[in-house]
From TrEMBL:
Transmembrane annotation, as ranges: 12-30, 50-73, 80-102, 108-130, 228-246, 266-285, 292-312, 324-344, 356-375, 395-413
Cellular component GO terms held in the UniProt record: membrane
InterPro entries linked to this entry: FLVCR1-2_SLC49-like, MFS, MFS_trans_sf
Pfam families tied to this protein: MFS_1
Classification of source organism: Eukaryota, Fungi, Dikarya, Ascomycota, Saccharomycotina
Compartment list: Membrane
Source species, domain of life: Eukaryota
Gene3D superfamilies per UniProt: MFS general substrate transporter like domains
Name of the molecule in the record: Major facilitator superfamily (MFS) profile domain-containing protein
Length: 462
């Protein structure tokens, strides 16, 4: 009696839906950051700080709602989780439109925009923690990292689009309402795609995906006592936090040197496009050879070096080589490392809950993103200080020092026990004793002698 493992073509529909939702939410996150100067003038503010708090509140909203998201994904499944994220995205976006068009000629209603931004922050974990769980259910160990990369990295793609397009939509303070409206139309259009997301496959795609996951509380106990999970969470959180802070503050990092909002937008686009190209090339290699640790050994020092380079990337002669080169390194290395760490962490703690592990990793990144943004904002020179005034060199030095400290954790990962990947070992050990899995959508032709193990929920095999 042999179990049958099946790979479905429709799994790619879910990948596209989750990509669109992540693009929509992150575009909402960075709507105002690329045009911070126009935004604070529209809202009649006296500094950048309230605009920066639109991003910071987004991070804290993510942290507050993540435990609920993990619970919903674990108990109610992918479809309900994605529906919740899409619904919150639509409501939050509409509230921001109301906040900018209400009292349009008198600075809008900033409190309403902030509420909408918080709801968008609530929406993000409902779509951002799904990729690791989805790839484990629908993809084999030959494509999990690549699938996770497509879904997870669509989040910074939305940020890149915001960096590139917000300056086009908003060339002066009075364009802020129009920019918000256009962004809302895009977010709502992407959110409607949630109706097409598949739930869980009827038949597991591999032996490891058929194993019932542990509950949330037993999984939390494993994470709390696992050194590899703790150290990985530190590195992941620091680098995600700095990427978020760097993306949020890029316009404010560059404009004191004479760069324009468009220049900052182009740099943000280079950051994301280079990262996507690098991840699309390098992730399949990691899927093919499962060389997780080698990637970590190489990429972590490169990212730290890129943040050191960011201290010197901007100059008053407004050259582009510095910002573009630094952005390429940060983008390629960060985008490649992110999905790989999400998948490798689950390899080390399987069969612990992947919903919870991804939630903790992302929550740490958002928490540090908020903290780093606050600290870097405070380290900015005042308008009558620094050369040039209001530059953020001190903030970039802080960023480089903390990123460099993460390199000191790498010797911990040299232990041989961390070279063992549990899910991959299970798939290869069991898979080698079975006939090849069918990939046909119609499996009604299977013989009665074949034992079928249907998966009827996102988490459990019955």
């Amino acid at each position: 009696m042999r179990p049958v493992y099946k790979v479905y073509r429709k799994r790619w529909i879910g990948v596209v839906v989750i990509m669109l939702l992540n693009i929509a939410v992150s575009w909402g996150w960075l709507t105002y950051a690329p045009v911070a100067d126009n935004s604070y003038r529209f809202f009649h503010m006296t500094s950048y700080t309230p605009i920066n708090w639109l991003s910071i509140s987004f991070f804290f909203a993510f942290i507050a709602i993540t435990p609920i998201c993990s619970y919903v994904l674990h108990h109610l499944g992918i479809r309900v989780t994605v529906y919740a994220g899409a619904g919150l995205s639509i409501v939050g976006s509409v509230l921001r439109v109301a906040g900018t068009y209400g009292r349009k000629n008198n600075g809008g209603i900033f409190a309403l925009v902030m509420i909408g931004q918080i709801l968008l922050g609530f929406a993000q974990p409902f779509v951002l923690i799904v990729p690791t769980h989805y790839s484990g259910l629908w993809f084999t160990n030959k494509s999990r990292i690549s699938a996770n990369a497509l879904m997870s990295l669509s989040n910074p793609v939305g940020g890149a689009l915001a960096n590139l397009i917000s300056p086009i939509f908003c060339t002066n303070p009075q364009d802020v309402p129009r920019m918000t409206l256009y962004t809302t139309i895009i977010i709502c259009g992407c959110s409607v795609s949630a109706l097409f997301v598949p739930a869980s496959p009827k038949y597991p795609c591999s032996p490891s995906s058929a194993v019932p996951k542990l509950g949330l509380w037993p999984s939390l106990k494993i994470f709390a006592t696992s050194k590899v999970f703790i150290y990985t969470t530190i590195i992941f959180s620091v680098f995600v936090g700095f990427f978020n802070a760097f993306s949020s503050l890029l316009q404010q990092i560059m404009t004191p040197y004479g760069y324009t909002n468009d220049d900052a937008g182009y740099t943000g686009a280079v950051l994301i496009v280079a990262g996507l190209i690098g991840a699309l090339i390098l992730s399949p290699i990691a899927d093919r050879f499962h060389c997780f640790l080698w990637y970590i050994y190489i990429l972590v020092p490169l990212i730290a070096g890129a943040y050191i380079g960011a201290i010197f990337m901007c100059t008053t002669d407004k050259q582009y080589a510095g910002p573009f080169i630094v952005s390429i390194f940060i983008g390629v290395c960060s985008f490649t490392l992110l999905p790989l760490v999400l998948e490798w962490t689950q390899e080390q703690v399987h069969p612990a809950s992947d919903e919870l592990s991804a939630g903790i990793l992302w929550c740490g990144g958002q928490l540090l993103g908020a903290i780093f943004t606050i600290i870097m904002n405070a380290l900015r020179y005042n308008h009558d200080q620094g050369n040039p005034p209001q530059n953020m060199k001190r903030a970039l030095i802080f960023e480089a020092v903390i990123a460099g400290a993460c390199v000191l954790l790498l010797p911990f990962f040299t232990s041989n026990k961390y070279k063992h990947n549990r899910r991959i070992a299970m798939d290869e050990a069991i898979g080698s004793t079975l006939a090849p899995a069918t990939t046909n959508d119609d499996i009604t032709h299977l013989t009665d002698s074949t034992q079928i193990h249907p998966v009827t929920s996102d988490s459990k095999l019955v």
